[in-house]
Design goal:
The protein is of the alpha/beta class. It has 24 helices and 17 strands. The structure holds zinc ion (ZN) (2 copies).
Length: 581
């Protein structure tokens, strides 16, 4: 079976088609139609396959009949004949050349036709031998930029994206290494600050009275494998583990514009610049400047940048794509959740199944975090590999929970279970004890390779179970290891919304499941969410932090997140599921 085509994959293919058509010298009109379609698919916020199924894909702006049919073919068959035909006419390696600076489609066409260059290696050879400079339009400066771009690319290939949590550990070590610099202020920008689930590089923004010392310290940090570039106020390094780090020393008086600029996203910054221009100013990483001349306006704090444009400060997690500025102008930014808003953790494992800490230890950890309740949700019997609990052991665990609750009152311990959703959708809830369980999580660890239809049916059945309160890590993905399951998420979310079944944002940084874009979709459907640490040892309760980021990136209001509720409200909600079916 061919690989599933999701929104991102479809957008990539449409972009490649646009590139290939442009290299072939097709009309701008046709090329742009594909580019627009790719952009629109990326900003859909809906699962493409369900839009193909109900035909609503044809109603999307910029997607006409011809492209709509191609998308339908691509999504239903997993392949597209038109794309395959184009790929035979235009060598794939030419598309890679497009990524080199100064090499737009027209120039790629020129080197292909006139120099028979089809790969980056051949382009490098042509540049070094002087053949490239003989082509009209390729001056010495341009050739130099192309060569530099090829070098840059070789470096980029040595690096890769790492999970946010690994980037976070690295960033903390770097920050520690720079401590003590005079007048130090430090912040990490880019996708790290926007809390994307993976990070490709780390942008350290630093202000200090001694820029040279900052550069010196940065380049000689123990985790630096190689210094790539070293200037008086900036540096680039390759860290061990092969992600790139950039340091920029910023003047204190320009900190606000610089931090705003280097946080991105690209689209958000375009939107900010457009708004500035409407008010008669250009905005750069350095300052605002009146378009008709006059002094620069400096912003020492990021808040000032937003305030100057009549906006409230926008949380970095909301700065993805083109939306934040529009909504901010309308006063529609979400009331996002903070870590301090979380009153409890509904997904905790212990020694009773595959955890490494006791119930009491987990309680202590929760207390330190300022939580007022936790739900002990060890695996059910069906997940034997994880030491799932049969009825007898679950009963003994309940006795221990009662005991812990008697001994201390700072953290209320709830009785729960992470019950397996079996291949036919039955949920492995221990029948005799069901009335004594406060929280039942339904989740799926087995038979994950079923078809989209089967997975969907399985989830729908579990959601309609009167005792299943939370669906945990719905896609089952593991970052960098396992793609999530395919399912009709729209239908699943609608049913979860209707029945008040809570969807988990699993905070384990290798899961982050629901992922932000699906959490956003569920949010639009009116779903409720829980943020679960899924802690298997005491230290992992800290991971709730990463779940909070996902909820923010999905624009979820905090009152939709059950961890922020009073416990009684949550328990009532769980008990009353019957009435919502
Ligand atoms: Zn699980
Ligand atoms: Zn779990």
């Amino acid at each position: 079976m061919s690989e599933r085509v999701d929104n991102e994959k479809a957008a990539q293919i449409l972009e490649e088609i646009a590139d290939m058509l442009e290299i072939q010298g097709e009309s701008v009109f046709k090329v742009n139609a594909y580019r627009r379609a790719a952009e629109n698919i990326r900003s859909l916020g809906r699962d493409l396959s369900s839009m193909v199924q109900d035909g609503s894909i044809f109603a999307v702006e910029g997607i006409g009949k011809a492209i709509g049919e191609k998308i339908t073919e691509l999504v239903t068959k997993g392949r597209l004949e038109y794309y395959e035909k184009l790929s035979q006419e235009v060598p794939r390696s030419l598309l890679e050349i497009l990524e080199i600076p100064d090499m737009g489609p027209k120039r790629v066409k020129a080197v292909w036709e006139k120099l028979k260059v089809t790969t980056i290696e051949e382009l490098e050879e042509a540049a070094k031998s002087g053949r490239l400079a003989e082509l009209p339009g390729f001056g010495p400066k341009s050739v130099a930029r192309i060569l530099a771009g090829i070098e840059e690319r070789k470096r980029a290939l040595e690096t890769h994206r790492i999970p946010l949590v690994s980037a976070w550990i690295l960033a903390e070590m770097v920050k520690e290494g720079l401590l003590g610099l005079p007048g130090l202020r430090i912040e990490v920008g880019g996708s790290f600050r926007r809390k994307k689930e993976t990070v490709g590089d780390l942008d350290f923004l630093v202000s200090s009275h001694d820029p040279e010392a900052a550069v010196e310290r940065f380049c000689s940090l123990p985790m630096v494998q190689k210094v790539l570039l070293r200037g008086s106020k900036k540096a680039s390094v390759l860290f061990k583990g092969s992600i790139q780090g950039d340091l920029r020393v910023i003047e204190r008086s320009r900190w606000g514009t610089a931090l705003q600029y280097f946080t991105g996203s690209k689209e958000h910054n375009v939107q900010m610049r457009e708004l500035a221009l409407k008010k008669g100013f250009s905005l750069s990483e350095y300052s605002f400047k009146a378009v008709d001349g006059g002094d620069e306006i400096l912003c020492a704090e990021e808040e000032e940048v937003y305030a100057f444009l009549g906006l409230p400060w926008i949380l970095p997690e909301l700065r993805e794509g083109r939306r934040a500025v529009d909504e901010a102008l309308k006063g529609n930014l979400p009331n996002v959740v903070n870590e301090e808003d979380l009153k409890g953790d509904p997904h905790v494992h212990t020694l009773w199944s595959d955890g490494f800490s006791s119930i009491e230890e987990m309680v202590l950890s929760a207390k330190e975090k300022g939580l007022r309740w936790i739900a002990i949700t060890d695996h059910s019997a069906a997940l034997a590999v994880a030491g799932g609990l049969d009825t007898a052991r679950l009963r003994s665990q309940m006795v221990e929970i009662d005991d812990v609750n008697r001994k201390q009152t700072s953290v209320r311990v709830l009785k729960g279970v992470e019950a397996e959703i079996l291949a036919d959708g039955t949920v492995d809830v221990p029948g005799d004890l069901v009335d004594e369980l406060d929280i039942v999580i339904g989740s799926l660890h087995l038979s994950m390779r079923q078809s989209r239809e089967e997975i969907t049916r399985r989830y729908l059945k579990a959601i309609r179970h009167p005792r299943v309160h939370i669906i945990a890590h719905p896609t089952g993905r593991l970052l960098g290891q396992r793609q999530g399951m395919d399912a009709d998420w729209e239908v699943i979310f609608e049913e979860a919304s209707r029945t008040g079944t809570i969807l988990e944002i699993n905070a384990n940084p290798y899961r982050l499941d629901l992922p932000d874009y699906l959490a956003a979709l569920a949010n639009e459907k009116g779903c409720l969410f829980s943020i679960g640490s899924d802690a298997h040892r005491t230290s992992q309760m800290e991971l709730l932090h990463f779940g909070v980021s996902v909820a923010r990136r999905a624009w979820i209001n905090k009152d939709r997140i059950v961890n922020t509720w009073e416990l009684d409200k949550l328990l009532d909600w769980a008990k009353s599921k019957h009435d919502r079916l």
